[in-house]
Amino acid sequence: MQFIDLKAQYEHLKSKIDKRIHNVLEHGQYIMGPEVQELEQNLADYVGVKHVITCANGTDALTLAMMVLDVKEGDAVFCPTFTFFATAEVIAYEGATPVFVDSDQDTFNICPVDLEKQIQKVIAEGELNPKAIIAVDLFGLPANYPALQKIADKYNLKLVEDAAQGFGGEINGQRAGSFGDIATTSFFPAKPLGCYGDGGAIFTNNDEYAELLRSYRVHGKGADKYDNVRIGMNSRLDTIQAAILLEKLAEFPTELKARNRAADKYSRELAGKYKIPVVPEGYVSSWAQYTLVSDDRDAEMANYKEQGVPTMVYYGTCMHQQTAFKELGYTDENFPIASRLASQVFSLPMHGYMAEVSF
Ligand SMILES: *Cc1c(COP(=O)(O)O)cnc(C)c1O
Known about the structure:
The protein is an alpha/beta fold. Helix content is 39%, strand content 15%.
């Protein structure tokens, strides 16, 4: 059994994907070819936002969002401590200070109550300028955007949705990628919507942000390609990856249903044995991971291994425990829930082509 079966997906879509790649080889517009625009339009339609700007990967997507929001030295940007490194990395990369926030113990997402505490603490200390929040749709479940948006409004902060894992998720019919001021995603192969290399995208309804993002991703270009009006970066999605994603996006709704069926089946069979994932009323998860909590993770994982079922730990190290963020001076006592989750969670195989699994 595969943890994520990309081969089964390719077998299923082979003729369509091969044809798309062949088309690109024929027209030869490898950078910013017509498939890139077509994909941006289809992504905008699917997510329900005005603008989609594709880029080289999910980390760049977050970095570009930080650039547009003018995040810089002296700014505080709040993000969950229980996430993938890139969420916090892009804040520090801009010279700003990541301020970590504990998790909700049921959804594993950023805890709105602790977020407000951390914001008030930064305000009281008076050293940093509170600028933005990056919320993460961890394991495919959208964060609590209704609560987060209220906090962002109350403290005049920008809200960024890191939907690298959340693409396909929903809250009351509103799709992941459409929350906050700017949202980002990743097309890394193992994500719910992945390509065959690196890729990413940024979503926004803000015309001004969209124009800036299109400039930043190509060296800060102005109206004239060779007049660069600001300092940007080189972060485009390859045309071949866009071509592959066009076919994968068309199949995505079917795969999303299959992922949800697999998750429901896991939950029916494993409820009682473990704490199973919580999906709040009105929410849809894209199940980037199906994650269990156990007091004896090592023994559980060894047991699955014996049965031929691969498991993985996402994530065994919180941001406040990372060597690169040691100087921020946090301890596990600052984030009791996230620290406990990091020592207890493990994930089961999850993809859109699961054969019937039984335990
Ligand atoms: C994967 C991931 C990223 C980074 O995406 P890349 O395409 O690998 O750069 C950022 N945030 C989260 C939560 C992720 O899971």
